[in-house]
Amino acid sequence: EKLLLQAPARARGRLCRAGAAPGAARGERSAAGSRRRPGPARHGALDYPHVQIPFEITLWILLASLAKIGFHLYHKLPSIVPESCLLILVGLLLGGIIFGAEEKSPPVMNSDVFFLYLLPPIVLDAGYFMPTRLFFENFGTIFWYAVVGTLWNAIGIGISLYGICQISAFGLTDITLLQNLLFGSLISAVDPVAVLAVFENIHVNEQLYILVFGESLLNDAITVVLYNLFKSFCQMRTIKVIDIFAGIANFFIVGIGGVLIGILLGFVAAFTTRFTHKIRVIEPLFVFLYSYLSYITAEMFHLSGIMAITSCAMTMNKYVEENVSQKSYTTIKYFMKMLSSVSETLIFIFMGVSTVGKNHEWNWAFVSFTLLFCLIWRALGVFVLTQIINVFRTIPLTFKDQFIIAYGGLRGAICFSLVFLLPPAVFPRKKLFITAVIVVIFFTVFIQGITIRPLVEFLDVKRSNKKQPAVSEEIYNRFFDHVKTGIEDVCGHWGHNFWRDKFKKFDNKYLRRLLIRENQPKSSIVSLYKKLEIKHAIEMAESGMISKVPSSVSLSDYHEGKIKPLSPTEMENMREILTKNLYQIRHRTMSYNRHSLAADASEKQAKEILIRRRHSLRESLRKTNSLSRERPAAANTKRFLSLPKNTKLPEKLRVRNKTSSRVGDSSDSDLDAATTVLNLRPRAGKILREQRLRQQRPLPEFRVEWKNEVDGSQDGRGEQQDPSTLPQPSIGFRQPLLTRPRFGTLSREDLTADHGSARPMPPPRLVRQASQGDRQRNKPENQPY
Amino acid sequence: KMFSDTAFVRDESQEDITTEHSVSHSQITRLYSRFTSLDKGENGTLSREDFQRIPELAINPLGDRIINAFFPEGEDQVNFRGFMRTLAHFRPIEDNEKSKDQNGPEPLNSRSNKLHFAFRLYDLDKDDKISRDELLQVLRMMVGVNISDEQLGSIADRTIQEADQDGDSAISFAEFVKVLEKVDVEQKMSIRFLH
């Protein structure tokens, strides 16, 4: 452990020595390693020093991950106690063991290791998953809270602590103002991950989410910059006014410089991924390499690495998402989460380990006043800042929001490592600072982290309506929300923002052409379209999971006028069922969780909705007599498999497509086909009538037609019938909606192939049969089986 | 394009729209550019396909209904006026509007008209009643696959029961308004940038 943590240079050298002869490396070993006799290796003997570093690293990470498994064993635990608490406890335990076993202080985290290896993944993760649009829309507020808030906190805490130190009774008079200011700056770094976890279950103002998230990101950068500023001041003998101004200027240079480096490298990364379609396997590597490069480049120039890596990730995100393959995209996301999760875990465990030991100095006054001032200044700061910023905001922040922001000011890893970075020469009372920081972190993480959720729920409940809500209320509320979201989507996304529109134009004209391989449709919803694996769709269809339009069964059971009154428990049941099952409003901000990727639920929902719509539209398609099945116009570009392109559409509908489906043309061309499938003149009244009609007809009729069709098609081809394209008649009445998916790009031949020779294309044939089906309705062979 | 932005402003007498719906000039310009960007056929009107090209709408459970709301009865195309007309329902209600002009036609974004808009989304056959069928339709659209028909049926029954006052097992517009009297419709059906 000592080797690992206190001699990173040597460790790195060791790790790099890939092919070097064992003899050469031996000289590098420290005294702690044992000496190895030259000569042939003795099998069975323990050669621990040889593998010590990687072994220990692996063991630490393994331990951390096992601890995580342990937490989730009891499923309620993570929701009550934030993971960070649990990790610190594990660290404490471990520290205690080491201390007890060896009677000396456990290793302390080397700040190089922290800043070079452990911090970047966390910041990268936060930056990559930041919803950029929302971030920039709220940028003013975020910037306001991050910069002004941090300054407020830092200076406030510093000055008030200095005031306390002046009181000679506490024995702190040797701590200078500058030292206090430095301490204030490092302790004002807020790490709200625990708070973000709480957000998932509370209804929060959507803006709040991005505020807390964005603030934490900028906040980190600003703290580090401030810290370096004050540290350099501390080490100067005299400080002139000019130095202060230089400091402020430096502040801006560092921040903006970091951002520029990040953006530059982000563009380079995006450009690189434009050409990676032949080497998909290493696509994720580019993302990580470029981001890390931006971090260390910025650090090299003494600029803000955090800002660099954040801006790199945010820049890269949009373009890379479209250039890389689906699998690479998933890999990137998951790997990023994995790295950041591991980093965070290690940090917290180290925190626990480092707490046990002899590098503490306890001073009641200093520690308790630090804690007090942290809380007070945070609350004051949030309050005052909010009052000011609410004037400029269209959606003001409520009291509950402010409470969450203020109370959610947990301290975390950054303060912890910054305090260890303090040069002891300048800070004779470093141990005191360490103790104070640890106390603050423990308090905020444990007490505030655990209590924030119940408090917020209490606030929520307090202000919500006391009377029992009606069952229908949730339905109506959700209904309105969906309608509103829909209309907002029709109107398009607006910033009232001249710059944003300008940027978008610039983006479309130049950047996208340069950085994106094929100019494919843009929004993330569209990539959602693409992501819908057709295989899943078919599986769902065939297993009957497609939701039903009100089937004839339930409607025929309905007796007019006999609605029985419901008991309270039944009502409660209903409400519960509704709450669980009503579709969520499409959130523009995905909830951020360092420990998981939350996109799956909404993807599932989107899948269901899309499938159901296609299903019902296919029904209407079948009823329409005017549709004739003809050979579809060829799609003239290779496209990734997207649902509608694979479907042969009646010629009539395809005509509309022709004008706009040219290569690299309007970005929505990929969707044109999608819409034609979905559209097909869905007059609502017509659908309703059709459904009423269908209720009166025996349902299995459709199945029969399909079966006939498939049998017929089999004669005409010698090709192997893919069994899964055939519907399983025994499973409900669902037909597969589409042909068997073909993964990868569709080549031209597939689409232009004559329908007779290629795989069967169910929908058009069903269409044709529909009209015949009417005639055949009464034939005996069409009785349902 | 048939209209450039300025041409539109001149030709289409946007003052009509401004006064009719009290939408500001800059908003009209923005919405017009949105309209034209949706209008792929470039013939000055939108069809249903154009709406369905909006991907976010495709995964909105009520997407189809919302799209239908834009089209007047029996028509397949909507021009910009019609587009604005529908959107005007979602303009936020300003306080100073509430008291003025009781004699003029009720503005489209009044509470009553907003509710009427919502009611029409349920009531497809336009008989001024939301029948159990229609309610079930909408419910089914809004709900996941895990609810059985029976459960959904009883939820629909309960919803009707809570709203129905004249015992006809359907929800009339008046009953709809009554059941929503505590709901802040003005806020729920207002889009702030349509000021």
From TrEMBL, chain A:
Residues annotated as domain Cation/H+ exchanger transmembrane: 61-457
GO annotations of cellular component type: apical plasma membrane
Domain Sodium/hydrogen exchanger regulatory region intervals: 548-656
Biased composition (Basic and acidic residues): 620-632, 704-720, 747-757, 774-785
Lineage of producing organism: Eukaryota, Metazoa, Chordata, Craniata, Vertebrata
Record protein name field: Sodium/hydrogen exchanger
Low complexity composition-biased segments: 22-33
A single MF term (Gene Ontology): potassium:proton antiporter activity
Gene: SLC9A2
Ranges for region Disordered: 22-43, 620-670, 704-785
Similarity section: Belongs to the monovalent cation:proton antiporter 1 (CPA1) transporter (TC 2.A.36) family.
Keywords per UniProt: Antiport, Cell membrane, Ion transport, Membrane, Sodium, Sodium transport, Transmembrane, Transmembrane helix, Transport
Organism: Cyanistes caeruleus
The UniProt record lists the keyword Transport: yes
Main location: membrane
Lipid bilayer topology: Multi-pass membrane protein
Subcellular location: Apical cell membrane
GO biological process: regulation of intracellular pH; sodium ion import across plasma membrane
Residue ranges of the TM segments: 80-101, 113-130, 142-165, 177-202, 208-230, 242-272, 292-313, 365-392, 404-426, 432-456
From TrEMBL, chain B:
Pfam families given in the database record: EF-hand_7 (PF13499)
Keyword field: Calcium, Cell membrane, Cytoplasm, Lipoprotein, Membrane, Metal-binding, Myristate, Nucleus, Phosphoprotein, Protein transport, Repeat, Transport
GO biological process terms on file: protein transport
PROSITE patterns hit by this protein: EF_HAND_1 (PS00018), EF_HAND_2 (PS50222)
Protein location: Cell membrane; Cytoplasm; Nucleus
InterPro entries: Calcineurin_B_homologous, EF-hand-dom_pair, EF_Hand_1_Ca_BS, EF_hand_dom
Domain of life: Eukaryota
Record carries keyword Aminoacyl-tRNA synthetase: no
Major localization listed first in the record, in broad terms: membrane
Domain EF-hand: 26-61, 110-145, 151-186
GO molecular function per UniProt: calcium ion binding
One GO term describing the cellular component: plasma membrane
Protein family membership: Belongs to the calcineurin regulatory subunit family. CHP subfamily.
UniProt-recorded name of the protein: Calcineurin like EF-hand protein 1
Gene from which the chain derives: CHP1
